[in-house]
Each structure stands twice: as C-alpha cells, then as structure tokens.
C-alpha cells in the first residue's frame, strides 16, 4: 500500500496546525490524511515535484542512523537541498514544509524529534514547531536552509560541518549575521579546525560574532561576491530524480564561491573575538608574565 | 541610532531616497514609489514575470559632521534584507560631489517573496578599528513584491469568509462564531464570519443609529484579537542557554513590545518579557497577569478604535464584499 501522496504540495499553516493535537503529537492518534489532502494545494509558482526521491532519502536516513537520529542531519541536509532544487522564494513558503512534515514524511519527524518525557510532561511528544514552525526549527526547513546558507557555492562540505554541531544548527541558523556568506564560512572554518568544535565553544563563538556584528560591518570589512542567480536557476531547473547520492556528497548550485580573502580576514578576526569570549565551563587561565 | 555605542557615531540624520525603479530594464511608474510611505510596490498585474528589479538610490549623510568628526575611510552602503528568504545583501554606494552617495540595488525575483527592507548604513574607521557602523537611517524602505499600491502594512490582516464552506475547512469548528483569530501563520489573520447573521450588515452599515453598537462590537473584536495575539506571541518566546527569554521577531515581537508597557508599566521591555515568561512557567496561575493582559488588550483596542482606522477598514472590507 502506498499511502504517500505522489506530489509535494503546499499545506497552509492554518489548515495544518488544527490537526496537530496533543494526541497526534504524542503519537497516540494518526494525522488525518484525508483532511490534509483536501486542504493541500499545488504551490502557485512551482513546478510539481514527485515525492518518491524525497521518500527514498528519508528512508535511507532512518536506516543509516537508526539509533542516532541526530547524526542524520549532516547526511540529509545537503541531499535534501540537492533533491528539492527550490529557489529561495519557493522555500520561503512554509506550506511546502508543512506538507512534507505532516503528509509526506511524518515518520521522520517523530523519529528525529521525539521528545523526552519529563516531570512536567510525563508523556513524550514532538514539539509542534517541528511540524509547523519557523525555518530554523521546522524539521525539514531547518535542514534545507542550513544547506542553503552554509554551502560555499557548489561545495556542501561546510554544510556537513554546520549540521554535525547542533549548537551551530540551532543557534547560528537563526542569526542574521550568518546571512553574510564570508561570516558564515569563517565561523564554520573555526568549528572545523578544532578552535571551536565543541557545543559550548561553538555557541560562545557564534554569540561573540553576533555581538560584534552589532557595531562592526562584516560586509564592509570582508565583502562578498554576489551569487550568480542564473547559475542557481539553471541548477534548480536541472532536476534528475533518479540521481540520488547516498555515499558521495552531491554538488550544489555553482553560483560562485565565497571570496577567500574575505573568509581569511574574518577567520582571524573571529579567532580573536573567540579568545576573549566567555565559554561555559572554560577556565580562564591567566598567564603569569 | 538608538543603541549605545562605545565610540562616536553620527548625530545628524542619514536618509535614503529611491529615485527610480526598473523591472527588467523598463522603468516602473512613479506612482509605485511612495516617498511618504517609504514603500515601493513592485507587483504589477501586467508584468508578473519580471526577473530583476533595479532601484536607483541616493543616500544623504550629514556631510559637515562627517568632515569634522573623528571618522576616516568612510563608506556608505545600501542594505537589502528579507527575513522570509534570508537574503541580506549589501550594495556599496559611490560618493558624489554634492556629498550624497548614489548606487543601484538589485533584487532577483527568485530570491525574494514578500516584503524586503532597504536601509542605508554608514561605516568608517574609528579609534583604529575598521568597519565600525557609525550611522544608519531610522526609517527603512519597504520593497513590496505583493502589493500593487504602495502602503506600509502593519497589524492584522482582515478577511470576510464563510466559516462553513469547504475551502475554509480549518474554520469549520468555529462556524457558529462571529469571528476567529488565527495566529499560526507569518501574519496574524482576523477572520470574520460571513455566515454569521447580521454581522456583515452591522459592521458595514454607515447609519448613525448603528454607530454605538458598531463601536461596542468593534472594541470587543479588537480586544479579543489583541488578547489572542499576545498569548500566542508570549508562547512563542524561547529562552537562550542561560534561560533568558529572546524576542521572537516579526509580528510577535511587535505585539509584545506594544502591549508589555501596559501590562508591566514599571519594567523595561527586556525585564517585562522576563517577568512574564517566569510568571507563566510557575504553576501558581500567574497572579494578576491575566487581568493585566486583558487591560493591555483593552488599551490597544481603544487606541485602534479612536484612530478610526480599524472601523474604516472593516467597513470598507464589508462594502467591497458586497460589490
């Protein structure tokens, strides 16, 4: 029985949210698929996408990382980005992500974001915002946007670095400073080279950079080159649903790398900021002259 | 600039002017640019398929202050920002002899969706530190890809719908209610039920005799709306790793900032937010908090009613429906 819809549609948040009752979020009641199918519409400006390759990725992710769902993030983010081939304007429509989470792959949301039970909430449940929520929290939107904002042109490797560190994924993704590509790449370089690889360190680094960004214009210190919109568009149109990469990283849109000189410059600046930043649990050792 | 800076910043006003807009190299009608509303309406029914919009901009900076101040390497840039598509692009401007800075801002259709914000920032070297932000305009422009008349949009979207019709399945549970407030989306929506007998006629009526009951009903709707907005906004507040609440952004933050001063008048906005979040997480019922929220909602409702805008908007939307 194939219970998944053939195409990815757009499900308005107001229609989606009503179905996310406590019972549904706790996994005690099914998501009413028929009501969702009635409310879902094709995205007004987007070519229809079949859900089959998306399903394949989701199934593979759950197979590979069966006992360690968090580790699925760095594997899935670039591959989801590569399979969906959305423009930013399309990805900004929360309806697609709602449909993906409620209708196409709710099993993934329950698997990846299963809540823990606590004294206050003895029955574990999935947070509502993992189904319908802001781009940095919703189960699939966060992966897609992480891939889009942290890739360096066609190179998805920085995305893997970002998604391996939940603190980067949870904290940096929502900060406007990372919308400047050299800033994002410089942060990830310090995470990758071990300067700030732990969760607390990454968190402290991101916060220090964000605080500095309120008085410093990183865009002026380290200018970016405008991404090439035509290159992105031709990549977005060049979909091949049979081409899935399970082992190798796929290649993203070849819309221009981040200028290396800018990344270098910010890396050094951030290294200094990080040296002075308070890190939870890091002892301050004063050198005696 | 409102923040406090550990170095000298510009006191004089920085301002951005949009001189012309072109869609795929065809100039946009001047009526699409409203200087008073600081809005450019880029959506035109005849040309929905445009790819690139170019805005010619000019920034004015307090030149004399800059010349006599401690800043060097001064540059000026226009910054385009849209949260929904996570685009933040900086366009450097070129100085003119007159002391203003000019340049072009480019928007690509694929990278924008709704309303983008365009602001100007002045950057310079101060006290040996490069790239310091020394000035920005207080009043950014809105580049609107959705609206066809240039008007800044704030507050609540209002729509008349039939709550019991198939297309609005999510309103079906409320079909016997006169109105419903929906806070799940990117912008809050007030739904008014066409099916509710007499509601449309009463709100759309221009008769003086109906004025009192109209006002009473409107303030009731407004109070309801503000209470719902506030509760939903407060519940969306997340805390950082040290347990401090973070402003949620968007309409939620606007709502909180608007209502908190009436809820906890003795607190600064940050402290008020913290207080509210703490009170709600205690299991003592929050004390007099809910009374205070109702009061703040009543204040907002009174403000909107006195402004008359709410009434007029409702009346207009009811009349448009009739046609």
Structure report:
The complex is a heterodimer of chains A (289) and B (323). Chain A has 289 residues and is an all-alpha fold. Chain A has helices at 13-17, 22-25, 33-39, 52-64, 72-84, 88-91, 94-104, 106-112, 141-150, 157-164, 166-171, 181-192, 199-212, 218-221, 229-237, 260-276; strands at 7-8, 49-50. Helix content of chain B is 30%, strand content 29%. The chains are: A mainly alpha (289), B alpha+beta (323). The A-B interface holds A 12-18, 35, 38-39, 87-89, 91-94, 132, 135, 145, 148-149, 176, 179-180, 203, 214-221, 223-224, 226, 229, 232-233, 236, 280 and B 3, 5-7, 52, 75, 77, 79, 81, 84-90, 92, 106, 108-114, 121, 123, 129-133, 166, 169-170, 173, 182, 184-186, 189, 241.
What labels describe this entry?
heterodimer, A: mainly alpha, two-stranded antiparallel sheet, 16 helices, 2 strands, B: 323 residues, alpha+beta, 5-stranded antiparallel beta sheet
Describe the secondary structure blueprint for this structure.
The complex is a heterodimer of chains A (289) and B (323).
Chain A: E1 7-8, H1 13-17, H2 22-25, H3 33-39, E2 49-50, H4 52-64, H5 72-84, H6 88-91, H7 94-104, H8 106-112, H9 141-150, H10 157-164, H11 166-171, H12 181-192, H13 199-212, H14 218-221, H15 229-237, H16 260-276
Antiparallel strand pairs in A: 1-2
Chain B: E1 15-23, E2 26-27, E3 33-34, E4 39-41, E5 52-60, H1 63-68, E6 72-82, E7 87-92, E8 94-95, E9 101-108, E10 115-126, E11 129-136, E12 141-144, E13 157-161, E14 179-182, E15 189-193, H2 199-204, H3 211-235, E16 238-239, E17 245-246, H4 250-263, H5 269-281, H6 289-307, H7 309-322
Parallel strand pairs in B: 4-12, 13-15
Antiparallel strand pairs in B: 1-2, 1-5, 3-4, 5-9, 6-7, 6-10, 8-9, 10-11, 10-12, 14-15, 16-17
Helix pairs in contact in B: 3-4, 3-6, 4-6
């Amino acid at each position: 029985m194939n219970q998944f819809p053939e195409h990815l549609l757009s499900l308005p948040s107001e229609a989606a949210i009503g179905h996310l009752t406590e019972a549904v979020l706790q996994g005690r009641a099914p998501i009413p698929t028929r009501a969702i199918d009635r409310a879902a519409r094709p995205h007004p400006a987007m070519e229809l996408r079949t859900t089959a390759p998306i399903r394949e990725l989701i199934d593979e992710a759950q197979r590979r990382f069966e006992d360690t769902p968090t580790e699925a993030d760095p594997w899935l983010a670039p591959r989801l980005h590569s399979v969906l081939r959305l423009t930013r304007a399309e990805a900004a429509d929360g309806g697609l992500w709602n449909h993906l989470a409620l209708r196409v792959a709710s099993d993934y949301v329950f698997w990846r974001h299963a809540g823990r039970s606590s004294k206050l909430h003895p029955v574990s449940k999935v947070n509502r915002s993992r189904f319908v929520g802001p781009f940095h929290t919703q189960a699939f939107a966060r992966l897609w946007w992480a891939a889009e904002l942290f890739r360096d042109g066609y190179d998805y490797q920085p995305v893997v670095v970002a998604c391996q560190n939940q603190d980067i994924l949870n904290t940096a993704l929502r900060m406007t400073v990372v919308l400047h590509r050299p800033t994002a790449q410089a942060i990830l370089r310090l995470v990758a080279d071990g300067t700030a690889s732990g969760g607390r360190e990454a968190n402290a680094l991101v916060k220090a950079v964000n605080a500095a960004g309120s008085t410093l214009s990183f865009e002026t210190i380290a200018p970016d080159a405008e991404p090439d919109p035509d290159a992105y568009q031709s990549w977005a149109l060049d979909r091949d649903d049979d081409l899935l990469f399970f082992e190798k990283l796929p290649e993203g849109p070849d819309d221009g790398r981040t200028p290396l000189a800018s990344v270098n410059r910010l890396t050094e600046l951030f290294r200094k900021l990080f040296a002075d930043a308070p890190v939870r649990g890091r002892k301050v050792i004063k050198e005696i002259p | 600039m409102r923040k406090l800076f550990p170095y000298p910043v510009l006191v004089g006003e920085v301002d951005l002017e949009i001189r012309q807009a072109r869609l795929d190299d065809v100039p946009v009608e001047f009526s699409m640019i409203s200087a008073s509303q600081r809005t450019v309406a880029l959506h035109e029914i005849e040309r929905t398929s445009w790819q690139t919009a170019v805005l010619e901009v000019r920034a004015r900076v307090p030149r004399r202050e800059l010349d006599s101040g401690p800043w060097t390497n001064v540059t000026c840039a226009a910054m385009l920002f849209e949260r929904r598509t996570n685009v933040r692009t900086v366009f450097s401007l070129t100085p003119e002899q007159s002391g203003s800075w000019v340049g072009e801002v480019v928007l690509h259709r694929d990278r924008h969706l709704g309303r983008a914000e365009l602001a100007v920032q002045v950057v310079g070297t101060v006290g040996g530190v490069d790239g310091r932000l020394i000035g920005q305009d207080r009043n950014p422009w809105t580049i609107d890809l959705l609206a066809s008349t240039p008007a800044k949009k704030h507050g609540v979207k209002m729509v008349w719908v039939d709550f019991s019709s198939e297309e609005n399945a999510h309103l079906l549970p409320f079909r016997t209610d006169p109105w419903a407030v929906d806070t799940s989306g990117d912008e809050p929506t007030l739904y008014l039920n066409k099916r509710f007998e007499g509601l449309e006629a009463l709100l759309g009526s221009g008769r003086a005799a109906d004025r009192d009951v109209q006002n009473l009903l409107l303030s009731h709707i407004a109070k309801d709306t503000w209470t719902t907005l506030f509760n939903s906004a407060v519940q969306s507040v997340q805390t950082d790793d040290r347990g401090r609440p973070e402003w949620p952004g968007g309409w939620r933050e606007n709502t909180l900032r608007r209502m908190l001063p009436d809820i906890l008048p003795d607190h600064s906005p940050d402290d008020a937010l913290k207080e509210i979040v703490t009170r709600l997480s205690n299991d003592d019922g929050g004390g007099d908090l809910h009374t205070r929220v109702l009061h703040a909602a009543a204040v907002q409702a009174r403000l909107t009613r006195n402004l008359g805008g709410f009434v007029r908007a409702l009346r207009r939307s009811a009349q448009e429906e009739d046609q």
